[in-house]
Amino acid sequence: LRLVAVLKAILEGEKAVVLKRDHHLPLSFHRRQEELKFGLGLQRLQHRAREIQALRDGLKAPDGPRPSSAASPQLKMDGKPPESELPALILEAVKELEAAKQQVLKRIQIWKRQQQLAGNGALFEENVVPLQKRCESLVEVYFQLHEQVMAASTELGAELLPRLLERFNEVLSSLVKR
């Protein structure tokens, strides 16, 4: 009985330390800031997918207006022909997709760590729905961008396409594995 009492006291001490350490942090503020940052990144990715589609539509109709020129003035200022804008725009979209993936993986890691600390008595929000929505929305944008890349495969060239597809596969596989 004495051994049980000692172990109980130790575990209660650990619980108090964990609660004390995590109690002073305003988690709601940081969590809200992180959600807003991810939402902004996701909107930027969706906008990139629409820009790529508009640029591809502009390339198909040589007589029509080029919507990408108005949508991305920094590319227009470079004086590049519209055919060279497409790979640059796709590469930028892939970089943003990888950054969004890193945010999701970081949030998953935080959730796992909180789950571990819950074993020591820390507060743990078991609601996995926000994390699931993040993953689903990121995968949805992933498929939009992947579809755009596959549709623009002839404009991208033989050396850029395999590298892009490899990066896309790495994004999806790391999301699924974690």
UniProtKB/TrEMBL annotation:
Listed under GO biological process in this entry are: signal transduction
- Which InterPro entries does the annotation name? STAT, STAT_TF_alpha, STAT_TF_CC
Question: Which Pfam families does the annotation name?
Answer: STAT_alpha
Gene Ontology molecular-function annotations: DNA-binding transcription factor activity
**Record flagged with keyword rRNA processing:** no
Which PANTHER family does this entry report, sorted A to Z?
SIGNAL TRANSDUCER AND ACTIVATOR OF TRANSCRIPTION
Q: What is this protein called?
A: STAT6 protein
Origin species, per record, is: Eurystomus gularis
